[in-house]
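Practice record 12: protein with nicotinamide-adenine-dinucleotide.
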Amino acid sequence: MSKSHILITGGAGFIGNNLALKLLSDGYKITILDNLSPQIHGHYPNVDGQVLLAQGVEFIRADVREPSAIKLALANADMIVHLAAETGTAQSMYQIAHYNEVNTQATALILDFLANNPHAVKKIVLASSRSIYGEGAYRCKTHGDVFPGARTAAQLKSHQWDPLCPSCASALTAIPTPESARPSPASIYAATKYAQEDLIRIAGDSLGIGTAVLRFQNVYGAGQSLNNPYTGILSIFSTRIRRSMSLPIFEDGLESRDFVHVSDIVQAIQLALESEAANGGTFNVGAGEPTSVLEIANMLVDAFGGKIRPEVTGQYRLGDIRHCYADLSQIRGKLGFAPKMSLKKGIEEFTSWVLSQPLPEDGLDKANEELKKRKMMS
Ligand SMILES: NC(=O)c1ccc[n+]([C@@H]2O[C@H](COP(=O)([O-])OP(=O)(O)OC[C@H]3O[C@@H](n4cnc5c(N)ncnc54)[C@H](O)[C@@H]3O)[C@@H](O)[C@H]2O)c1
Ligand SMILES: [Zn+2]
């Protein structure tokens, strides 16, 4: 049987580029639909050396909100990996209509095309996000597993960083968040990702197309955007370390994230494409382990041989979560997924790639100023 032809929307981006290279080497044909958004690729995108020029790749430079581009991109595809999106959590809070258009409306347009035109698509894999959970899952000594929800502005103001038990207000321990956790998006970005999930699952069911929703934790690795000042704390920190600038860490630095290497994300997407068992499923994808932001910042400073240590500022952003890491039992059990890249090795690989790249301007101060102006950061 000949290999599938896969449309990757947003295929010129960080995850898409890594995914396309792997799928190409496994014999798949690839179409990429991507508008090379300047916020991500810079104003003069250089496609040399990128997967876009590789043999076996059809590259359509167009906006995913453009119905004629969707039609062209789906001409030969029998599977879709939908990655194209705006991904800045804080930015989404003041570019609400734009985020809704690129993330939600474009997804609706793709599904609309599938519902109303002949096509060969039999599978859609969606890149969703752990952000749809909002705050992660916790355990109370008395009340068992609890989902405390977003921290209030008053709580953050009094530097009560850790969520408390909703029933007895006692201290909690973070536990892995399962897919069954009640979604509670805390940003417009997260709300659009959750909307994408519903649109794809419901339309897929009614159209008889297999769907798989993958909720990624914090993805890092070679190829992530170093230009986008709104996403990727590893990128933002790396630029500051290379410029010998201070490294401000929010809250008390003990807030944690689940950092997963892009090669493991590629592994999960490929399993979801190739496995019947994925159909109709929603799966967490992460390393399954929490790492504090202070710890990752220190790892980066060490890996770059930087002189300036991270500095905990006690500042905070409204809507930030405290902890969330993936419960991987579903994807392990149903798809045989297992993360392979250790954080130590992944960070070494990431920093050596960063050093091979031009040194970007630092965008953090400007991005934070914007948030302060909008009273989203204190
Ligand atoms: N990187 C992460 O940590 C992470 C975590 C959770 C979920 N995700 C999801 O994974 C997907 C890919 O993320 P990424 O990290 O590779 O992001 P990225 O920003 O590197 O790539 C996104 C790509 O989409 C393209 N794009 C943006 N708007 C477009 C439009 N209107 N039309 C056509 N193309 C457009 C961009 O040019 C870019 O190449 C996104 O859907 C994101 O929400 C990423
Ligand atoms: Zn309790």
